[in-house]
């Protein structure tokens, strides 16, 4: 099978990426409108960029009706958002907050999750999250082809200005334990992946001598 992007629509191209680039971490993004209405949306086009400054990136396209996502409107208006790490506690309600509701809907009410004040940004955080990143927008890059249906995309680059995580996700060395963090990731379509012990394995870092032996230089 082959896939030539030039012969397919932006939606079909994104669908292909979403099926092949898996699993993807989910940013459970919480924001608040200028009218004080909180919003939550799961976003899996999410990546760390650099540690100095501490930057993350989110790509935000359009809603199914062709309008801007509420998360994008809220975040660009306030200048900030919170990435709540999508862990097992959120597993059963990811599709609830993914539903494209109207602008006055309150996803906190729909899910029963608890809004809590962030430390350094105006957007609310989710009280049930075991870890969160408070982010201030530094740059928005316009991508895609706006005149094509679903072709408009915004790459939002934000600086992490505050990190909070629960002691419950730490191991005996006080490092974050991925199994205790229990992140949920996105697969294709409506499928997701849990982090469970039987799926995790570790590898030792190979030494220069070992590598030299493998490529025949020793």
Structural class: alpha+beta
Number of strands: 12
Instruction: Give the biggest sheet.
Output: 7 strands, antiparallel
Strand content: 25-35%
- Mean model confidence by pLDDT: 93
What would CATH call the homologous superfamily? Answer: Electron Transport, Fmn-binding Protein, Chain A
Sequence of secondary-structure elements? HEEEEEHEHHEEEEHEEH
Indicate the CATH topology: Pnp Oxidase, Chain A
The end-to-end span amounts to 41 Å
CATH class: Mainly Beta
| Poorly predicted regions | none
CATH level-two architecture:
Roll
Give a short overview.
This protein has helices at 10-20, 70-78, 94-98, 107-111, 178-181, 208-214, and strands at 24-25, 27-32, 38-43, 46-51, 54-60, 80-85, 115-117, 124-126, 131-144, 152-165, 184-186, 192-194.
Quick tags:
single chain; 218 residues; alpha+beta; Pnp Oxidase, Chain A; 3-stranded antiparallel sheet; globular
Describe the 3D structure.
By secondary structure, the chain is α+β, with helices and mostly antiparallel strands. The protein has one domain (5-214): Electron Transport, Fmn-binding Protein, Chain A (Pnp Oxidase, Chain A, Roll), CATH 2.30.110. It has six helices and twelve strands. The strands form three sheets. It has a seven-stranded antiparallel sheet with strand order 3-2-6-9-10-5-4. A three-stranded antiparallel sheet has the order 1-11-12, with no helix packed on it. Strand 9 (131-144) and strand 10 (152-165) form a beta hairpin. 23% of the residues are buried.
């Amino acid at each position: 099978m082959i896939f030539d992007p030039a012969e397919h629509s932006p939606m079909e191209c994104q669908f292909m990426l979403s099926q092949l680039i898996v699993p993807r971490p989910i940013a459970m993004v919480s924001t608040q409108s200028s009218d004080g209405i909180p919003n939550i949306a799961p976003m899996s086009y999410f990546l760390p960029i650099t540690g100095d400054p501490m930057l993350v990136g989110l790509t935000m396209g359009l809603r199914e009706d062709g309008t801007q996502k509420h998360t994008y409107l809220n975040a660009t208006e306030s200048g900030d958002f919170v990435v709540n790490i999508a862990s097992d506690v959120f597993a059963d309600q990811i599709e609830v907050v993914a539903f494209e509701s109207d602008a006055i809907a309150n996803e906190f009410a729909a899910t029963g999750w608890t809004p809590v004040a962030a430390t350094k940004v105006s957007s609310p955080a989710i009280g049930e999250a075991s870890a969160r990143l408070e982010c201030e927008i530094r740059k928005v890059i316009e991508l895609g082809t706006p005149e094509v249906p679903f072709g408009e995309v915004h790459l939002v680059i934000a600086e992490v200005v505050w990190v909070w995580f629960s002691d419950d996700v730490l191991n005996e060395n006080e490092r974050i334990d991925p199994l205790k963090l229990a992140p949920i990731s996105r697969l294709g379509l409506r499928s997701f992946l849990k982090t469970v012990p039987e799926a995790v394995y570790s590898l030792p870092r190979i030494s220069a001598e070992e590598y030299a032996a493998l490529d025949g230089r020793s």
